[in-house]
Amino acid sequence: MIKVIGKRVTLTATGIAVAIFGAGLFGWSDKDDGVSSLGPKKAFAQSAGRDVLPTGRTASPVTDGVYPASYFPNTEELGPAEMRIVALGTGMPNQTKAAVSISFLVELGNGDKFLFDVGMGSMGNLFSLRPDFSKIDKVFISHLHVDHVGDFMGLHIGSWLSGRYTPLRIWGPTGAKPELGIKAFVDNSKLAYAWDLEGRTGALPDDGGKIEVTEFDYMQENEVVYQENGVTIRSWPAIHLLDGSVSYSLEWNGLKYVFGGDTYPNSWYVKYAAGADIASHEAFLPPKALAPYFGWTLGQATYVSTRVHTEPAAFGKVMSAVKPRHAVGYHSVLSPENYQAILEGIRTTYDGDLTLTRDLTVINVTKDEIVVREASVDEYALPPSVTKAYNDAPRSKEKKPSEKILAGKWKGYTPPKMPDEKK
Ligand SMILES: [Zn+2]
Ligand SMILES: [Zn+2]
Q1: Which DSSP symbol is given to 37?
Q2: For residue 371, how far is the Cα from the chain centroid?
Q3: What three-state secondary structure class fits 192?
Q4: In sequence order, which residues have a C-beta less than 8 Å from that of residue 191 and are 6 or more positions away?
Q5: Are 390 and 163 in contact (CB under 8 A)?
Q6: 42 falls in which pLDDT band (50, 70, 90)?
Q7: What b/e sequence results for 62-86 when a residue is b if at least 16 CB atoms lie within 10 Å of its CB, and e otherwise?
Q8: Alpha carbon of 262 to ligand 1 centroid (Å)
């Protein structure tokens, strides 16, 4: 049973759905009174296994499968056998306000959370959900295009500022050469952001500044890359420009989610995505819509849409072969005309259940039903609350500028005395 609520438009009777982090948030210890300028954030109680919620929020279970029309983050308890997928970014490398680059958050009823890709701009949508960042520590990367990894350092620093006190764990494929793999990407990102990381190290929890990389063979076929706590994640190759692009499946509690990454229609996907509850795959603009969108010739657009990516009719063919409970398309800015062009293309080859995701589309999955809604978030959302464990996590020592720089402080301003927070 597929339910589509809210802004979605049901097109057929079969239930076809159409579907800040703080920059430079610190100073340094003020030598004069010896009080840190970056004391621990106020912490909130966290019950065992549950997410810490932003202050003022309570979560209730969804009863009898009756979901509110919109998804208001931190107001719904995920059922013990339920999966929730939130599209954090569904667009193109040239982002718009409505559609930033690719990222998906998968939350499970056992408390685990996983990110698949972290494209540019997607962290704004992640932060708007105000999640418990102590649990957002696992990222799986399909390939190293900027629209799939551009917010990696934003995630690392932003989550470290906002509740994550353990290392960020990242998985991704090798490339044809060592410098084209995920490990080189992380090493080089750390070098590029050395100044930022150096300055924050010591002020924030020491372990939260660490990144643990797992690089696996991009050619491996449906082999396990992650297996913990009842969750199994596998990878297989994708066909996309260079070697070193992959797709993933996540299996837990009898549910299977597939994240396609970017790919030309390929036999691995058809084989290993089979039986998925949610099979997501790129659904690119067809050539005739892509050409005017980018101002390209029809030849250029045909090459990109049908040789590098997957055009809608090809997406439909793939899904007709995979036969998931619910197909999910992404990787387009869904303006009305683009939406129409993609949907029409898919419907020439696929008549199963389908959602074309927009940013902040939310999909709840249980064995009995799949519910598709849109999240309703505050554009000015505060950062989330942090746990006591985050506040108690060891920090070494805050950094500060050299004496020769501090000597330039203007005598015309005296900062207010630091409050005594020990009372
Ligand atoms: Zn790509
Ligand atoms: Zn892409």
Answers
A1: S
A2: 19
A3: helix
A4: none
A5: yes
A6: low
A7: beeeebeebbebbebebeebbbbbb
A8: 5
d(CA 17, CA 13): 10
User: Could you report the per-residue pLDDT of 269-307, keeping only the tens digit for each?
Assistant: 999 999 999 999 999 999 999 999 999 999 999 999 999
* Cα pseudo-dihedral 352, 101, 146, 117, rounded to 10: -60
219-236 tens-digit pLDDT: 999 999 999 999 999 999
State the greatest distance between any 2 C-alpha atoms of the chain, in Å, as a whole number: 73
The pLDDT confidence band at residue 64, using thresholds 50, 70 and 90, is confident
Task: Single out the residue of 82, 89, 53, 59 nearest to residue 71, CA to CA.
Answer: 59
Tell me whether residue 316 is in a domain.
no
pLDDT (0 to 100) of residue 397: 86
And the tokens for 135? 């649990």
Looking at the CA of 242, name the nearest ligand.
1
| Ligand 1 midpoint to CA 136 (Å) | 24
Q: Which residue has the tokens 């939130």?
A: 86
pLDDT, position 4 = 58
In contact, 312 and 342? CB cutoff 8 Å:
yes
Q: Write down the residue that tokens 């797709």 correspond to.
A: 247
Domain assignment of residue 97, given as a range: 2-46+70-221+333-406
Question: Which ligand neighbours the alpha carbon of 238 most closely?
Answer: 1
251 domain-assigned: no
d(Cα 208, Cα 216) in Å, to the nearest integer? Answer: 23
User: What's the 331 CA to ligand 2 centre distance in angstroms?
Assistant: 7
Structure tokens at 105: 């958050």
Of residues 208, 272, 213, the one with CA closest to residue 237: 272
Residue 144, phi-psi category: left (phi > 0), alpha (psi -120 to 50), beta (remainder): alpha
User: Which residues hold their Cβ within 5 A of ligand 2, which is an ion?
Assistant: 147, 262
- 296: buried, middle or exposed (CB in 10 Å: 19+, 13-18, 0-12)? middle
Residue 82 lies in a domain: yes
Q: Look at residue 25 in the predicted model and tell me its pLDDT.
A: 38
Residue with tokens 């100044």: 195
Q: Into how many domains does the chain fold?
A: 1
The Cα 24–Cα 32 span in angstroms is: 22
Residue 166: band (very low, low, confident or very high) from pLDDT cuts 50, 70, 90: very high
User: What CA–CA distance (Å, rounded) separates 3 from 77?
Assistant: 18
Q: Is residue 246 part of a domain?
A: no
Distance 412 CA to ligand 2 centre (A): 51
Instruction: Give 280's strand partners.
Output: 259, 328
Q: Which amino acid is at 334?
A: L
